[in-house]
Amino acid sequence: MPRPRRRLVSTCIGTVTAGLLATGAALSAPDEEPSRTSDVAMGAYLDFGPPGVARIPSLSRWLGGKEIRVGHTYLPGDVWGGIEGNVGFLADWAAWRRARADRLFVLNVPMQARNESRIPDRQVAQLIRAGANGEHDQHFRRLAERLVNLGVPDTVIVLGWEMNGTTYTHRCGPDPQNWKAYWKRVVNTMRAVPGQKFKFDFAPNRGTDAIGWTACYPGDDWVDIVGMDSYDQAPGRNFDEQITQPYGLQQHVDFAKAHGKEISYPEWGLFRNGDNPEYVRRMLKWIEQHKPLYHTITDYCPHGVWQCKANPESSRVFREALTPDLPGPVIPTPVVPTPVVPTPVVPTPVVPTPQIPTPQIPTPAVPTPQIPTPAVPSPEVPVPVPSPEVPTPVPGPVEPTPAEPTPVVPKPDVSVPPVVPPLPSPQVPVPPVFPPVPSPAISVPPPVPPKPTPSPLVPKPQPPKPQPNNSNQWCVPLNFGEWLSKLVGNQAVCFDLKWGKDSWVWPF
Predict the structure, then answer these.
(1) 133-167 burial string, b = 16+ CB within 10 Å, else e?
(2) Alpha-carbon span 330 to 307, nearest angstrom
């Protein structure tokens, strides 16, 4: 970071020359205005501690709501404890960074203690060799652990910034080869800490200064961003010369592109040429054209545009260029009433829907076969009939009694019933088919013919034998009852009677 005392002009001729340069720069024609909707992350160095964090919202309001996405501060380089991150304000910046995912926290880290003590080159060379041999590794390991523990493992580390100049103890000129070895050792040490996602920004001064900055470049494997600090000062009498000079703005862009690196402008602002709005306009245009990862203006006097009231014209240009475009007033569009044209109502003809009758499928009547039930006669208990009184004959000579025939009971003739043929299955008429309703197939099982039940054979009643006329035989009919008589028929008991004088029976 430049100091007001750097490169001060000590002669009157130098002062006059600087004034002429400033006048020429102010009179030069401006380039095309930069875009007012740049999406490049921007910020400003406002203070190293909590005041710098607190001023960010005020700067955003001053810029009409422009989002400040970059927070930028420096670790003190007086003692190793400061380089290790043992400072309270680091927690404030870490909290600001964690509040939004799209923010960047940029931290300038010295590579040597007593970093601004004007140590001679011979002693600087000894310190560089000590660092290349690993004597300072523990300091950078502690810093990396501190940043990871604070929740900012993706911090952009601007390590050993402006190494091509003469101001800082961590300068490269006294021993470039060991300086590059020292850079690599610091990067390897910090990357070895678990959880880190650091990006290392190699940021020399614009121009040659004490040594061409490409001689200090440590290599692509140890650099993530190629930055440049560029103030409005020599070398370069105007902005065009700042672009084209050796190790100037154009060579910086070309070098980063050749090595596949993003670019940045960690520090830029006014300096030797006073309030120079042309420089501010051209620098903002350059930034918009080349799209660096981020840029931060150094905003304190004599470099600043917001906190330094000595640069009102540059402040105006800066503010106009970065204030987002605000939407203009909304002009209401006059409402012209649209005439309502009545739409004639055309009646929709009602087309009757044809009624399609549902086909009725008749259910076939299956006749039930009538099976006659045989009438079984109930058996009747025969009522005893009193025997007829037979007159006692007058005793006479005993004649042999003729043998009385035993009535033969005829056995019932059981006849085999005739075989009844099975009833024919009724022919079920098939109903007509009405598409699209299919006719159900009705299957009628054939009736099961009943088993014939044999009818009992009822014997016909036998007429009683006729009584012979003028016979000596007297027959008395026997009554066995209706049921038994049907089985055995009509029977009678006959007696032979002899009529005469020798008979003891008196004839009637």
Answers:
(1) eeebbebbbbbbbbbbebebeebbbbbbbbbbbeb
(2) 35
477 DSSP β-pair partners: 492
- Whole-Å CA distances, 119 to 126, 137, 167, 241: 11, 21, 9, 32
For the chain, the structural domain boundaries read: 12-322, 468-508
Beta strand pairing call for 473-478 and 491-496: antiparallel
Assess contact for 279 and 25: CB atoms under 8 A: yes
Q: Which residues contact 9 (CB under 8 A, 6 or more apart)?
A: 15, 17, 18, 272
Tokens at residue 4, please?
């007001």
> Closest Cα to residue 75, out of 106, 104, 109?
109
For the domain made up of 12-322, the CATH class stated in words is: alpha beta
| Regions of the chain where pLDDT drops below 50 | 4-32, 34-35, 37, 376, 379, 381-426, 428-444, 447, 449-450, 452-459, 461, 464, 468, 470, 501, 503-508
Burial class of residue 386 in the structure, from the number of CB atoms within 10 Å of its CB (0-12 exposed, 13-18 middle, 19+ buried):
exposed
The residue type found at 371 is I
d(CA 60, CA 54): 11
Q: Which two tokens stand for residue 507?
A: 């004839």
- Give the residue among 224, 213, 266, 247 at the shortest CA–CA distance from 72: 266
Alpha helices in 3-132 (DSSP H): 12-27, 50-54, 56-62, 80-83, 89-98, 121-132
Site of tokens 């002693």: 123
Contacts of 313 (CB under 8 A, 6+ apart): 275, 277
Q: Which phi-psi region, left, alpha or beta, contains residue 68 (left: φ > 0; alpha: ψ -120 to 50)?
A: beta
CA distances from 13 to 17, 19, 23, 238, 502 (A): 6, 10, 15, 18, 217
Residues 6+ apart with CB under 8 A from 502: 396, 397
Provide the residue type at 171 as one letter.
R
State phi, psi for 71 to the nearest 5 degrees: -105, 130
Q: How far apart are CA 152 and CA 89, in angstroms?
A: 14
Residue bearing tokens 């105006």: 316
Quick: pLDDT tens for 39-80. 899 999 999 999 999 999 999 999 999 999 999 999 999 999
Among 1, 99, 109, 91, smallest CA distance to 46 is for 1
Whole-angstrom distance, CA of residue 228 vs CA of residue 253:
10
Residue 181 host element (H or E): helix 176-191
Quick check: 175 and 182 in contact, CB under 8 A? no
